[in-house]
Amino acid sequence: MERKERVEELLESLWIITVEGQKDKSDFSLLKDDEAIKDLINMGYVLVKENQLGLTEAGKMEAQKCIRRHRLAERLMTDVFVEKSKLIHETSCKFEHLLHKDLEKSICTLLGHPKTCPHGKPIPPGSCCRGASKEYLKKIIMSLAELEIKKKGKVAYLQTGNRDVLQKMIAMGVLPKTEILLLQKFPSYVIQMGKSQFAIDKEMASQIYVRQV
Amino acid sequence: MQFEKNHDGPIEHSLEIALETIEGLLHDRYPLSRRAVGLLLLQEDHEIHEMVKESQPTIIDGIEKIISGVKAHYAYPIEYEIALRRRDEVERIINRVVKVVKEEAQGIAEKVSALMMNPIAGFPLLFLILYFGLYKFVGVFGAGTVVGYIEETYDSHLNPLLVKIFSSFIPWRILQDLLVGEYGILTLGLRYAVALILPIVTFFFLVFSVIEDTGYLPRLAMLIDRTFKKIGLSGRAVIPMVLGFGCATMATLVTRTLPTKRERLIATMLLALAVPCSAQLGVILALLGSHPMAMVLWAGIIMMVFLFIGFLTAKVLPGERPSFYIEIPPLRMPHLGNIFTKTYVRVKWYFMEILPLFLLASFLIWLGKLTRLFDFLIFLFTKPVAMIGLPKEAAKAFLFGFFRRDYGAAGLYDLHKNGLLTGDQLLVACVALTLFLPCIAQFLINLRQRGWKTGVGISLFTLVVAFAVAFMVNLALNKLGISL
User: Among partner residues A173, A187, A201, which is closest to B323 by beta-carbon distance?
Assistant: First the structure.
């Protein structure tokens, strides 16, 4: 494990023990010689008192961000990639370190600003969640079947393993970045792209994923 | 168009490089440019692949290798990758030369269009279009007034003349019968095609062209898709089905536009079974006109059989569910010139396809009479006809129903006029006759398009269903003590 990752893991553990476990300090005799602890102390995130470790205020803020990324990653694995439960933790542990700043916000928004991780533990809110009005709380990527009538979406991706269906989509000009206005959902889906209108069935509509605009 | 050569992967897998390599291998005697052929090959177009294989058998393996190399590099099929690049190029050009003016407010056409596609307003609108377009114009005016006039003229002037001429030239009675007898090729076959079918179909095509040119059909397809999915068809099948109300034979010819074999088979079968053609419809409506309750029941029963048999067939027949998409063009005022041209071309095409079949039918009737095969067939029909509670005279109507669908109905009309049928019997007879065998022209087209096994199979099936349903209707009416 890389040093930086190790630092983040430690911060997360300390957060769970001290903040969520509501203890002031944690026994650190086992980790005495860990290089990462030294780093944390040098960065001013951790205090050592009588063989006990505690988070500083700066450390708490940093730890909160790490926990948030970890649990968002877990959500992403379960909700979007539908990962098997055994792999969630492991994959998320690797993945969280890649989630930085904007990416973290996007994923939080994509997931609809979840409040808990798949194991039910709280996800600390980020700036995107606090600013999130009701409008903002909606999923940002959804299939056309989930889009509301009279709303516009930009095609994000086409999810079909059927080449015939894909060719029909190409023929209509439904390709990533195409802007689609949904006009009607029943009895068939009616979509408008530019000046052209098409009717498609529900199956096809649910294979077109759009980002609402 | 050129594709970018820079590419995040092995350079020989870039589209442009692969294309150029393929182009280098092709000779220049194809009807398309080498680049177009190359592009189609990359997109695995079956026809072009076969064409190149035929023309340059030595290079096809090499081309396949290049294509599979490129394919391995992309998650999506290559036509998708090409479409993406083509779209970007189109956008680049459009952005340079097109200025977008602010969109206008919703016009009247958009409002009507929205109404047509609205499930609540759409179906009453469909009913109005069917009622005025098909029933009033094609049925009552075309099949009734105009055909009546033409047939009368034909009967009173042309036929006697033909009979006179041929009787004096041809001494043999048998040959006279074949040409100008009661069921002669000229007096029945030709008369039927020219005096009856031609005007009805012309009127039908006229209405159909108007409906088509306004852009209503895709909207109808969109309304009906969900229902048609349940019977294994997609909204696109609405075109042959609507045509079926004009002439089921022609509609069967049009089923070749459906994308899968499964859809073509289901549509062919339903057309043979439960879609009455305009000729038949005209006589049945006249027959049931005096019994409105029977007419409602008849329509309900036929619709139920249509949906139920379609539903079962879709369950039984293997194959993928059809997927549906259709472009919805803006509504337009039809252009008179276009309508007449279209109607003319279609009537001409139809007439050329159908005429020989009617002449053949006349010939077969003549043969059947001559060999007494008909008497035997009528005898065969008496039993099932009695089982569904009809007088034995109706057997003849059924046999002739095979040669011209309305002829059977017309036979019933005679029985009805002579007071031989009760209201119940009328309903049972109309149900049986509507579902009964397709007419001979449609039967021959079924054989030609679906192979003789399927064609004969469909006919036997409709025969069984027709009598089974009629039997049940008769039973239900008796048990419930309903007399219409």
Answer: A201
